[in-house]
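Example record used in the benchmark description.
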Amino acid sequence: MSTAAISNVREVNFDGLVGPTHNYSGLAVGNVASMSHGGLVSNPKEGALQGLLKMKSLMDAGYAQGVLPPQQRPDIGALRDLGFKGSHREVLARAATEAPHLLRAVCSASSMWTANAGTITPSRDAWDSRVHFTPANLQSSFHRYLEPQTTGRVLRAIFHDEQYFAHHPVLPATPDFSDEGAANHTRLCGEHGEPGVHLFVYGRQSFGGERQPARFPARQTLEASQAVARQHGLTEAQTVFAQQHPDAIDAGVFHNDVIAVGNGPVLLYHEMAFLDEEGTLDELRAKMSTPLIPIRVPLDAVSMEDAVASYLFNSQLLSNPDGTMTLVVPSECQEREAVWRTLQGYLLAGNNPISDVIVKDVKQSMRNGGGPACLRLRVVLTDAECAALTGRVLLTDALYGDLTAWVNRHYRDRLAPDDLADPQLAEESLTALDELTQLLQIGSVYPFQLR
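Model output (structure tokens):
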């Protein structure tokens, strides 16, 4: 690929819009923030506006920014599949009385964390020169297992042109092929248009393996990561499979992106990120065409408790045209002295490409266990691929204004767990989502629109 062609390739961060039913139900086992905030009152409007403001500020700073819609919630169809009968109002009332945990699950707004939406291989690395997509099955928890079908429709609607985009089926929704998407996948390279090496991080092996976490479940399997790589046609020379440290999972690191973040040639990671740290780095060095730049944060600088509480490693690492990088961190990083000291005195002052730190307030998401990196799905695209996107999904000032007004029209500013049974909330959500698909010009993607 020519130098000009390489320069016409960019990373687009597609952020998930926080949905109208954003609430704190404490559904995610192993996610310390989610479990500790379960039962609190949420503010869906504030959450959506915080996410949009993050997108807008990064767009204004020159980074390409896209938008993905939330899922249809509550998922009353899922409740009907589980035996609840009657009108919408009757189904919600029965679920609230007989199985409130199921009602909370079908109201989850967890699709905002689009890092879990799927795994993407850029056209530069694909055998057929197309961008490849596999939605994650998210089978490890019921509330997320409900997402893949709509996720697949959304991705196919936006990345529709078969000349440029290829879509693969969701992996079998069984524990053996438990797949949590790009939260456990990092592409490392020189420039975005140069060949990349794909680092897949897994928590356990279904067919073999020894070390397993003892306290919390390991959500990603080696077998799932290998299957996605096969779907995308990635070769052994293009892939590295590394096991996440079981002790990190037991400390609340439910996805690898809570303990490591990479972009370009840089891998920023905690000492406890990988079970075989040196072996992982050695294999990356051997397979990358550009020298790897590892930035290791030792345990004595940032404890596991501070890493999980601050989500330092669930930050966005963004490439700048001058070769430097910007780290977008949640405001919680300022609240932990050791973390902020590490950012200022170790990362910014160190011999590495990170030259700037941007602090963003995404507290509504953070209380459910999702930082800046959870909120975005990275898709590397050429100019031609960007031009082939369907819909109005790349953020502009006009789209930001329209989405902000849409949130202010439709979202509540207070939602307690008991409010989830309110049939009016369901009607409000459907009305908002129907309007959103028209605003984004992506067609009918929700179950209620396909009947």
